[in-house]
Amino acid sequence: MQFFGGSEISPSPPVPTASGNNAHMIYVFNRNGVCLLYREWNRPLHTLNAQQDHKLMFGLLFSLKSLTAKMDPTNLDKGNLGVPQLPGQGCSFHSFRTNTYKLSFMETPSGIKIILVTHPRTGDLRDSLKYIYNLYVEYVAKNPLYTPGTPIRCDLFDTTLDQYVRSIA
Amino acid sequence: MGREVSESCIDSLLTEMVTTYCNRFYANKPELAARRIEAIGFQVGHQLSERYTMERPRFSDHLEAIKFICKDFWSELFKKQIDNLKTNHRGTFVLQDNRFRWLTHLSLDPTTENTEDPNGRSENKGAQVASMHLYFPCGIIRGALSNLGIPCAVSADISNLPQCSFVIRIKA
């Protein structure tokens, strides 16, 4: 089963339009709802304080995933709700779009959720989210100084993530 | 054709070895932990140098042995050679690797480097933990050289990651 490639970071997927600086913010949660990373590049409006914002985001996505799986007209069995599945298997919610932004989501089998909010005309970001997960594995999960379950404070991850996100639309 | 092993497995094993020795076996005695880890490296280096010098003639002098470490030995271990070798011709050699393979995934906490601690202790803590991971490769080098008949002392310097310098001091 070759979902996440070899030990080298997989080459980044082709960028649709590289106009840079179009991502608004990114959240990374683990399976217990701990917000491992929150970075924002462009967010003029803050309605809630940080804690509430993270809780709201986590709750929203948890509910959306359950709802979309339950409403699936093509699936015969009830499925295991709440259990992270391989992306692409079962019914998995991956993005929603409003007139002002697009939110892209990916959950890995280990329960790591990556949420990226960008401008509304962004294409399908599933491959980009997979690449960001690869960055997480290389620079956070394999970092000897990182304790799993704690907020991410790794220099290398921050810089490579920043560079990558600025290069996608 | 030898057997192969996953690199992630080796990385995780080495990380866990250092963490176990530092946090469980010798929890408040970093010196002892460092010594144990270096001793493990010594054994490993001893055995590896035996294997990799099987078909070679004996080395004529210290410089030849160090060059063997820089080129063949390092290529077998890390698939690349040492990038820069410096010596003072009086028994001290500095081996510089611009991208040390076992340190590529290591990065320090950016926030602690900004705190103003009068003793600079918070900054040193991150660097101290990182330096624990270097005792193993230092031991490997010391073991390899000792097997070639060159007793020495090896230390490492990571002032700019991922670049790493190993300083070998040959006992006269």
From TrEMBL, chain A:
Q: Where is the protein found, in the record's own terms?
A: Endoplasmic reticulum; Golgi apparatus, cis-Golgi network
**CDD domains from the xrefs?**
TRAPPC1_MUM2 (cd14855)
Identify the main location: endoplasmic reticulum
InterPro entries with a match to the protein in the record: Longin-like_dom_sf, TRAPPC
UniProt cross-references to SMART domains, sorted A to Z: Sybindin (SM01399)
Output the Gene Ontology cellular-component terms: endoplasmic reticulum; Golgi apparatus; TRAPP complex
Q: Which UniProt keywords apply?
A: Endoplasmic reticulum, ER-Golgi transport, Golgi apparatus, Transport
Superkingdom of origin = Eukaryota
Lyase found in the keyword field: no
Complexes and interactors: Part of the multisubunit transport protein particle (TRAPP) complex.
Q: Which family does it belong to?
A: Belongs to the TRAPP small subunits family. BET5 subfamily.
Q: What is this protein called?
A: Trafficking protein particle complex subunit
Organism this protein belongs to: Cephalotus follicularis (Albany pitcher plant)
TrEMBL record, chain B:
BP-aspect Gene Ontology terms:
endoplasmic reticulum to Golgi vesicle-mediated transport
Q: Which domain of life is it from?
A: Eukaryota
Q: Cite the Gene3D superfamilies for this sequence.
A: Trafficking protein particle complex subunit 3
Please name one Pfam family that this protein belongs to: TRAPP
Gene Ontology CC terms: cis-Golgi network; trans-Golgi network; TRAPP complex
What family does this chain come from, according to its entry?
Belongs to the TRAPP small subunits family. BET3 subfamily.
**Name recorded for this polypeptide:** TRAPP domain-containing protein
What is the source species?
Answer: Cephalotus follicularis (Albany pitcher plant)
Q: What is the lineage of its organism?
A: Eukaryota, Viridiplantae, Streptophyta, Embryophyta, Tracheophyta
